[in-house]
Design brief:
This protein is α+β, with helices and mostly antiparallel strands. It contains 2 helices and 9 strands; from the N terminus they run βββββαββββα. 21% of the residues lie in helices and 28% in strands. The strands form 3 sheets. The chain has a 4-stranded antiparallel beta sheet, with no helix packed on it. It comes from Noccaea caerulescens (Alpine penny-cress).
Length: 130
């Protein structure tokens, strides 16, 4: 099974993958780059909420999982973040420069997920119509 290109909605994602390639990250300068599995290592992805907390200084990672045609691949992810309830997420005040504006308004995780779903849903339907 593969996963289309996306960013994780969480703060951080911890990923353990088998010794089979499949994970790719997108880099503006080079395009899709395969992440070589390192035995016993955890891969850590920055998620969208971390991006908001850093006021856009640290980007969330665009990534995808590709099917390996010759070997089975197993990955186990732990998605950390997204406080429950009405806890608002906003850029950390100590990170925002006094002359710099906050790029993000306070938002709860549920609100963020709803907005992200609506954007992806509209994009998906626009692609299917074309």
């Amino acid at each position: 099974m593969c996963l289309a290109a996306h960013t994780d909605s969480t703060i951080l994602t911890f990923l353990h993958q088998s010794n089979t390639e499949g994970l790719q990250v997108f880099r503006e300068e080079t395009g899709w780059v395969t992440v070589e599995p390192i035995p016993g290592a955890l891969m850590v992805n920055i998620g969208d909420l971390f991006h908001i907390l850093s006021n856009g200084k640290i980007m969330s990672v665009v990534h995808r999982a590709r099917v390996n045609q010759t070997r089975s691949r197993i990955s186990i992810a732990y998605l950390w973040g997204g406080p429950a309830g009405d806890v608002e997420i906003r850029p950390i005040s100590k990170i925002v420069d006094p002359v710099e504006l906050c790029l993000y308004q306070p938002i709860t995780w549920n609100e963020y997920l709803r907005i992200k779903y609506e954007v992806f849903d509209k994009a998906f339907h626009a692609i299917r119509v074309v």
